[in-house]
Amino acid sequence: NEEGGYKALSINSQLVEAAAYGTFSFSTLPTALTNSLSQYVNAFIPYQEVDSASNDDINLFVLLRNTEFLSNTISLPVVIPDSAMVSAYYNNRNNNILLSAAIPRLKMGEMELLQTIVDIDNDTLSPQMGVFGRTRFYQGGADTIRAAFGAKALNDSVNLRAFAGDPSKAMELYAFVDSDIHFTSREEGAMPLIDVGLNPGAIFVNRQRFNIMPATLQIDSNRYVVNNFELRDTVGGNLRIDGAVSATDQDTLRVAIDQLY
């Protein structure tokens, strides 16, 4: 249905229910959205010149119903036993992008994810794009593991924080990682250069703490450089990795383990 530039689209089936409505154009919406995303990761999504300014404002709602009935006839790598919901909003005039996804359960072979939540929000009060997610999962009847991540992006730079652990077994299994990532554009068609700065973090295994020390990692299209990566326990043991890996014989990766148990 379309009236005065306002559009309303809907679909309803045994598998999915979806609706999209607002003032938008199918010819300008894809370019407007990619240009809005380019201010965060321009190295991967270059800005595209447009002939005229568009005015795209769209709301989207998707309800994905139980897909287990499909697995009776076709082999699915992922099965959704309960309904999953995705809602989104986009306005290109102020580059406002909002997305919220809620998946009560998700089965992937022997692994089952419980209550997975993903939110994307570039709050107009902040120039950064925020992406946040959390989930609980178990595999083969094992204990439940909780995991979460948060990322903020702007101008080809991303701060990423993530943790995973078993809350029922304090410090027996837990990891926290904090990193700053920067992307550098290359010539057209080439993979961007990725520089990762690893900030202090920690890993707990059976109540033994291993500190993640500051390090850097550079990822090229066919070369990986590691500088000063170190896991250090609380009694003097450590694991160090330095060097580079590539297809050439000139690069060497050095791994040193000293009293690490």
Helix-strand blueprint:
Layout (H helix, E strand, L loop, with lengths): L1 E2 L2 E7 L3 E8 L5 H10 L18 E8 L19 E8 L4 E13 L2 E11 L7 E11 L5 E10 L2 E9 L7 E12 L8 E13 L2 E5 L2 E5 L3 E11 L4 E9 L6 E6 L3
Antiparallel strand pairs: 1-2, 2-3, 3-4, 4-5, 5-6, 6-7, 7-8, 8-9, 9-10, 10-11, 11-12, 12-13, 12-14, 13-15, 14-15, 15-16, 16-17
Mean pLDDT: 86
Structural class: mainly beta
Low-confidence stretches: none
Q: How is the biggest beta sheet arranged?
A: 17 strands, antiparallel
Number of E-state strands: 17
Distance N to C terminus: 66 Å
Task: List the helices and strands in order.
Answer: EEEHEEEEEEEEEEEEEE
Q: Which term fits the overall shape? A: globular
Integer-rounded radius of gyration: 23 Å
Count helical runs.
1
* Helical amount: under 10%
The share of residues in extended strands comes to: over 45%
What does this entry look like structurally?
The protein is mainly β. 4% of the residues lie in helices and 57% in strands. The chain has one helix and 17 strands. The chain has one helix at 29-38; strands at residues 2-3, 6-12, 16-23, 57-64, 84-91, 96-108, 111-121, 129-139, 145-154, 157-165, 173-184, 193-205, 208-212, 215-219, 223-233, 238-246, 253-258. It has a 17-stranded antiparallel sheet that branches. A hairpin with a 2-residue loop joins strand 1 (2-3) and strand 2 (6-12). The longest helix is centred in the N-terminal third of the chain and has 10 residues, at 29-38. The model has no long low-confidence stretch (mean pLDDT 86).
